[in-house]
């Protein structure tokens, strides 16, 4: 199997419900063995897209190609793909073992072969072997998560889909499971397609990320690319706290921020860029003594501070515009609330994005 | 104060309901049980008790009435299950906004007395009635009336007890989460396997409640056999009614009632043991 060949190709894939377009002309190639994450806010169409890929929803138009063969009309139970649901959708009337073995029982695999496979998967997913006969309803959240994954792996799918399975899990366990999932991905070598509303979660696990907005894929790239080179204001804001200024092009690397009445040194303004936004990350902003301390500078009022453990965030208001400045705890800023402060940044630390 | 402390707040608050249940629910039952042991055709509890009434029943043909009641109830419940599951499935998953309308259609007849509705069916099926009269006038054919047959009794019972099977069943079917169904399908199950492995077991609590409710009611049915069946068959409830009214033999009626309670109670307990509702619901 060539690891560089596409396993799943989407061609102008569209889904409409009445006059509402949930998914609009998505083109995407997913590589064999890739961990691909689709990120988007709720209502962006990511669940509908996933349901089309699994066969639980029919496509209105466009094609879904699995290793080159069109699978639009193949029902979910005939597709070599399997999904881990948001609710996990375990069978509450069955034991852990029976849940994991479900697809094997459906295929009439002999009971002892089934059990051996289930126990092997349980070992792989670090579920104690004596859980085999335990009711799934008695398992903890993390254990149920692993049972759901084992059940999907027992189906031996070519592609595993995940519909936000970690969203209902508390932060600490989620962080553990994210890393475990990435390890499982490595061990199995299967193609994982994951959807989530959390870009942070996507960054940890994914080889590539596709950001969805209003039914369309607005940007596809590696976590590094999405983080360091967002193409739109939407994507840049999706990553977390960022400072965004509306700007218009003024020179080859100068933009004008009408809100503050200043010209700002920016990265090279791309051809055709007339108006958009300048994005500066909170950690790229710094407090400066005087205007020569940075290429760009704004004067504002220190309004509040928030301690985030190893980091501290400062809210600085320039007119009514809120800026967030982030410092490491060791380098805490000594200013008091309502002090007048100068904040500055260099052009190389800012990103020009379109709307 | 000491008393209040020893019995605790939970017991204290439950006491009024407990007394109410004892007086309103247990007392009449105890009275019936007591009456079943006094001599035939007497009316006082304060005399020597005996098993005379039970001996009389075991030497009589009352067992036929028991068998008729249990048999008719069993047939009714089986037919109801087959009719109601598709309707329940439709109400819970397919009909969408029309589910309310269908529910209403099944509920409205309950507002009218059972006897009135049964007499309505008599008018429908009777010779020269709605059905046969129309057939005669339009097509000139005159089949035998189905009234006063066992079939029409079962028909009447199915008709009367349908809501008691349908609504718990609908609740049961609607308790199956969509994602669980989707998951089974996604794991390769066919429609039949999804039904057998997931939908049926998960909707079993509702189905069992429907079975029990309609069975218990159907065993006590009396009007269908009287009105539609023309008293060709005497169900056990009819025997009990005769003992208490025409025969003025309260102790015999009481003994019959006790036996009926024992038979139905045993069957219900057996079913409840076989299908532990908590286990089915996944609470344990």
Walkthrough of the structure:
The complex is a heterodimer of chains A (355) and B (284). Chain A has 355 residues and is of the alpha+beta class. Chain A folds into two domains: 6-233, P-loop containing nucleotide triphosphate hydrolases (Rossmann fold, 3-Layer(aba) Sandwich), CATH 3.40.50; 241-281 and 295-353, no CATH class. Chain A is built from eight helices and 20 strands. In chain A, β16 and β17 form a beta hairpin. Chain A is elongated, with a radius of gyration of 24 Å. Chain A starts with 5 loop residues before the first strand and ends with a strand. The mean pLDDT of chain A is 93. By secondary structure, chain B is mainly alpha-helical. Chain B is 75% helix and 0% strand. Chain B contains 13 helices and no strands. In chain B, α3 (62-94) crosses α9 (191-219) and α9 (191-219) runs antiparallel to α12. The longest helix of chain B is centred in the first third of the chain and has 34 residues, at 2-35. The relative contact order of chain B is 0.13. At the A-B interface, β6 and α2 of A face α8 and α9 of B.
Short description:
The complex is a heterodimer of chains A (355) and B (284). With 355 residues, chain A is of the alpha+beta class.
Keywords:
A: 355 residues, alpha+beta, Rossmann fold, 2 domains, 8 helices, 20 strands, B: mainly alpha, MetI-like fold, 13 helices
| Count of individual domains of chain A | 2
Low-confidence stretches of chain A: none
Into which percentage range does the β-strand content of chain A fall? Answer: 35-45%
Most extensive chain-chain interface: A-B, 29 and 23 residues
Helix content of chain B: over 70%
Largest sheet of chain B: none
Name the CATH superfamily assignment of the largest domain in chain A: P-loop containing nucleotide triphosphate hydrolases
Q: Please report the total strand number of chain B as a whole number.
A: 0
Helix/strand-derived category of chain A reads alpha+beta
Tell me the number of helical segments of chain A per DSSP (H or I, 4 or more residues long).
Answer: 8
């Amino acid at each position: 199997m060539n690891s560089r060949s596409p396993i799943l190709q989407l061609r102008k894939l569209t889904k409409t419900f009445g006059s509402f377009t949930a998914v609009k002309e998505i083109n995407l190639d997913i590589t064999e063995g890739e961990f691909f994450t689709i990120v988007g806010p709720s209502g962006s169409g990511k669940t509908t897209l996933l349901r089309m890929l699994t066969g639980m929803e029919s496509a209105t138009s466009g094609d879904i190609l699995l290793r080159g063969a069109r699978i639009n009309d193949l029902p979910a139970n005939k597709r070599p793909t399997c999904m881990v649901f948001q609710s996990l959708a375990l069978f509450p009337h069955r034991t852990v073992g029976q849940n994991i073995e479900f697809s094997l029982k459906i295929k009439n695999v002999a009971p002892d072969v089934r059990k051996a496979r289930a126990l092997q998967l349980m070992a792989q997913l670090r579920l104690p072997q004596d859980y085999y006969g335990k009711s799934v309803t008695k398992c903890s959240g993390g254990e149920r998560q692993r049972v759901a994954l084992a059940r999907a792996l027992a189906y031996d799918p070519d592609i595993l889909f995940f519909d936000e399975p970690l969203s209902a899990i508390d932060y600490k366990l989620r962080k553990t499971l994210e890393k475990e999932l990435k390890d499982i991905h490595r061990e199995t070598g299967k193609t994982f397609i994951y959807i989530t509303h959390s870009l942070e979660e996507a960054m940890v696990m994914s080889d590539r990320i596709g950001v969805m907005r209003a039914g369309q894929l607005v940007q596809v790239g590696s976590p590094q690319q999405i983080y360091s080179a967002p193409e739109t204001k939407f994507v840049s804001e999706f990553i977390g706290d960022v400072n965004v200024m509306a700007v218009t092009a003024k020179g080859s690397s100068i933009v004008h921020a009408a809100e503050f009445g200043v010209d700002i040194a920016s990265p090279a303004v791309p051809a055709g860029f007339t108006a958009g936004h300048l994005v500066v990350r909170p950690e790229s902003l710094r407090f400066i003594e005087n205007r020569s301390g940075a290429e760009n500078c704004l004067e504002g009022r220190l309004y509040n501070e928030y301690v985030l453990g190893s980091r501290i965030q400062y809210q600085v208001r320039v007119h009514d515009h809120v800026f967030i400045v982030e410092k490491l705890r060791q380098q805490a800023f000594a200013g008091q609330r309502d002090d007048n402060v100068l904040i500055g940044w260099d052009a190389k630390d800012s990103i020009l994005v379109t709307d | 104060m000491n008393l209040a402390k020893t019995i605790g707040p939970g017991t204290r608050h439950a006491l009024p309901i407990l007394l109410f249940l004892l007086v309103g629910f247990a007392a009449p039952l105890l009275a019936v049980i007591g009456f079943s042991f006094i001599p035939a055709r007497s009316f006082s509890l304060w005399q020597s008790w005996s098993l005379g009434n039970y001996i009389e029943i075991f030497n009589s043909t009352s067992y036929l009435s028991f068998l008729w009641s249990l048999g008719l109830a069993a047939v009714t419940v089986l037919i109801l299950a087959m009719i109601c599951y598709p309707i329940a499935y439709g109400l819970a998953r397919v009909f969408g906004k029309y589910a309310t309308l269908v529910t209403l259609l099944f509920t409205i007849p309950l507002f009218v007395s059972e006897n009135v509705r049964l007499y309505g069916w008599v008018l429908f099926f009777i010779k020269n009635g709605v059905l046969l009269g129309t057939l005669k006038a339009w097509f000139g054919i005159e089949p035998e009336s189905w009234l006063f047959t066992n079939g029409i009794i079962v028909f009447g019972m199915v008709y009367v007890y349908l809501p008691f099977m349908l609504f718990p069943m609908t609740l049961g079917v609607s308790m199956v989460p969509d994602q669980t169904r989707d998951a089974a399908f996604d794991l390769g199950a066919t429609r039949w396997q999804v039904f057998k492995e997931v939908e049926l077991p998960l909707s079993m609590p509702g189905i069992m409640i429907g079975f029990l409710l309609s069975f218990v009611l159907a065993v006590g049915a009396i009007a269908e056999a009287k009105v539609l069946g023309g008293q060709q068959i005497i169900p056990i409830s009819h025997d009990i009614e005769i003992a208490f009214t025409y025969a003025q033999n309260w102790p015999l009626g009481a003994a019959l009632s006790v036996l009926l309670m024992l038979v139905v109670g045993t069957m219900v307990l057996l079913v409840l043991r076989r299908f532990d509702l908590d286990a089915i619901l996944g609470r344990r």
